[in-house]
TrEMBL record:
Protein's gene: speB
Matching InterPro entries: Agmatinase-rel (IPR005925), Ureohydrolase (IPR006035), Ureohydrolase_dom_sf (IPR023696), Ureohydrolase_Mn_BS (IPR020855)
Family per similarity comment: Belongs to the arginase family. Agmatinase subfamily.
The keyword Manganese is assigned to this record: yes
NCBIfam families named in the record: agmatinase
PROSITE patterns: ARGINASE_1, ARGINASE_2
Cofactor list: Mn(2+)
Annotated protein name in UniProt: Agmatinase
Alphabetized UniProt keyword annotations: Hydrolase, Manganese, Metal-binding, Polyamine biosynthesis, Putrescine biosynthesis, Spermidine biosynthesis
EC assignment: 3.5.3.11
Residue runs in coiled coils: none
Catalytic reactions of this protein: agmatine + H2O = urea + putrescine
UniProt keyword Chaperone present: no
């Protein structure tokens, strides 16, 4: 069992279809077992859902309404607390099920390690998979303090699985010197500091490709998103992240799934991070599922 069958928490706004009816399945991955600084992102998915009640169902950016979509909110996965390896296996198995059933997955984290099993699942179906990664941190470590299953490692794992030349990172402004050396030497694409402008240059080369999009909320400056585990000064604004999402949505890439991770509500009593995240999810739902 992946989910609590008795789950009755708040659903994301207008995500009211049954699993059978839904083309899109939104699901939470409440895992923060490997974080190295501030825990609490396991509470992110439900807070994003709660914040979504304040959204309009209509996007003025995309001229689309959530009523045009068929979205099922599966709730949060029942992950074994503290067991990262088993949790990763469960997430991959559920992603396998979604893809087998023809669903479009939209994941809510949780720490960034939860993206890794979804990429593994995606690569089994899409051999030409590319990954667009928007984040403050490189996440290219092989291990952190001896632990290979770490929120600092998912993009390195993705590079090793699908080939570094198929991984595109944007907004990066933090990491070890060795991570940036790996990015330069391996052939992956890394854009430091900025997101929208380098995306404009890269997206034409991904035309027609199957692309998975993963967004870490800490790509935003802490002024816009204080509610995250590893805040990093010098980031982009909410407006710039919206522009990036809309650039992807308006391109010829074939987005096959997406996630948004690392919302940690305890560090933001104003809830501005969750409110922003819920809007990004709305735009991803309306923009990425063609």
């Amino acid at each position: 069992m992946f989910f609590d069958e008795a789950y009755s928490g708040r659903k994301f706004i207008m995500a009211d279809k049954s699993y059978e009816e839904g083309d899109i399945v939104l699901f939470g991955m409440p895992m923060d077992f490997t974080v190295s600084f501030r825990p609490g992102s396991r509470f992110g998915p439900n807070r994003i859902r709660e914040a979504s009640i304040g959204l309009e169902e209509y996007s003025v950016y995309l001229d689309r309404h959530l009523e045009e979509l068929a979205v099922h909110d599966a709730g949060d996965m029942l992950l074994p607390f503290g067991n990262a390896a088993r949790s990763i296996d469960m997430i991959e198995q559920f992603a396998d099920q979604l893809l087998s059933d023809g669903k479009f997955p939209v994941g809510l984290g949780g720490e960034h390690l939860v993206t890794w099993p979804i990429i593994r699942s995606m690569f089994k179906k899409y051999e030409d998979l590319a990954v667009i990664h928007i984040d403050a941190h490189a996440d290219l470590r092989e291990q952190y303090e001896g632990e290979v299953l770490s929120h600092s490692t998912p993009i390195r794992k993705a590079c090793e699985l699908i080939g570094p030349e198929h991984v595109y990172s944007f907004g990066i402004r933090s990491g070890m010197r060795e991570e940036f050396q790996y990015a330069e030497e391996s052939g992956m694409h890394m854009s430091k500091f900025e997101v929208a402008e380098p995306l404009k240059r890269v997206l034409p080369s991904l035309s027609g490709r199957n692309v998975y999009v993963t967004i870490d909320i800490d790509v935003l400056d802490p002024a816009f998103a204080p509610g995250t585990g590893t805040a990093e000064a010098g980031g982009i604004s909410s407006k710039e992240l919206l522009e990036a999402i809309h650039l992807i949505a308006g391109s010829d890439v074939h987005v096959v799934g997406c996630d948004l991770v690392e919302v940690a509500p305890a560090y933001d009593p104003s809830e501005q991070t969750s409110i922003a995240a819920s809007k990004f999810i709305r735009e991803m739902l309306l923009g990425f599922k063609k």
